């Protein structure tokens, strides 16, 4: 996906060009449910070509999906769906409106115990 697109429909979801974050294997964008634009979500996009030749990466992604499907905790994002096209794997996750610990630490550089408890 290059930077020129505005939105893409992926099955029941609309992926919008609103960058939320990036990891080693994925880029996360904001999205919403096609039938309800107010139902915001984070959609992790993984290029199939980047993982196809590495079975360890494929296994790691499978484990992540299986673990997220089993977990139900207020401080862990929920997984809603997984979708695949010819070029991408999409992991549809709960959209968190609050900041995460990494962002907080980047700004503050340190954290006391009382504030740390807010994240857990």
TrEMBL record:
The keyword Hydrolase is assigned to this record: no
GO biological processes: autophagosome assembly; regulation of autophagy
Domain of life assignment: Eukaryota
Keyword Nucleotide-binding applies: yes
InterPro entries in UniProt: Atg1-like, Prot_kinase_dom
GO annotation, cellular component aspect: autophagosome; cytosol; membrane; phagophore assembly site
PROSITE patterns, sorted: PROTEIN_KINASE_DOM
Alphabetical UniProt keywords: ATP-binding, Kinase, Nucleotide-binding, Transferase
Pfam families linked to this entry: Pkinase
Single annotated GO MF: protein serine/threonine kinase activity
Residue intervals of the Protein kinase domain: 14-120
UniProt name for this protein: Protein kinase domain-containing protein
Organism: Paramecium sonneborni
